[in-house]
Design a protein that fits this description.
The protein is of the alpha+beta class. It has helices spanning 3-17, 72-86; strands at 23-24, 36-48, 53-65, 90-92, 95-97, 101-107, 110-122. The chain has a single domain, classed as STM4215-like (2-Layer Sandwich), CATH 3.30.2000. The strands form 2 sheets. Strands 1-2-3-7-6 form a 5-stranded mixed β-sheet, with helices on one face. It has a two-stranded antiparallel ribbon with strand order 4-5. Strand 2 and strand 3 form a beta hairpin. The longest helix is centred in the N-terminal third of the chain and has 15 residues, at 3-17. The chain is elongated.
Length: 142
């Protein structure tokens, strides 16, 4: 499981649920169309756990740019609730993740839906070198 695969899973989920809306993954171009989504990685990190285990985490921000109009705020509240439900699980090519916490806020006429996911990996130990031949020396019978 990698952060890139998780982001791909988020984008795939958005495109499947909202096939008529553009989903931007890298950067929002000047003059982009509205309504649309932008998927942004906020932070990613890892922590060593017991033995060879590693705990990885990533926090994502899905930004929704609504169409301009009278019902813009109403649209953002409805979309926020819908996205929280949609991302109760994040399906990736490597498995399903369940965000521990998800929330949304509206800032500068943009809906921000944030959630973080955690998963474990195992760092493989390098294979031990095999001893092919042991030479011994006996000194005067001692």
């Amino acid at each position: 499981m990698t952060v890139f695969l998780i982001k791909k899973g988020i984008i795939k989920t958005l495109r499947k649920a909202f096939d008529n809306l553009p989903v931007y993954a890298e950067r929002v171009e000047q003059g982009f169309s509205r309504p649309s989504f932008f998927v942004f990685l906020k932070t990613a990190g890892g922590k060593r756990e017991l033995g060879q285990r590693r705990r990885k985490s990533a926090e994502f921000d899905i930004q929704y740019f609504p169409a301009a109009g009278e019902k813009q705020n109403e649209d953002m509240y409805a979309m926020g609730d819908e996205l929280l439900e949609l991302f109760e699980e994040v399906e990736t090519d490597s498995g399903v993740l369940r965000p521990a916490e998800a929330m949304y806020e509206i800032e500068d006429d943009v809906l921000h839906v944030s959630f973080s996911v955690c998963w474990f990996t195992r760092k493989e130990k390098p294979a031990a070198a095999l001893v092919s031949k042991i030479d011994t020396e006996v000194l005067n019978g001692r």
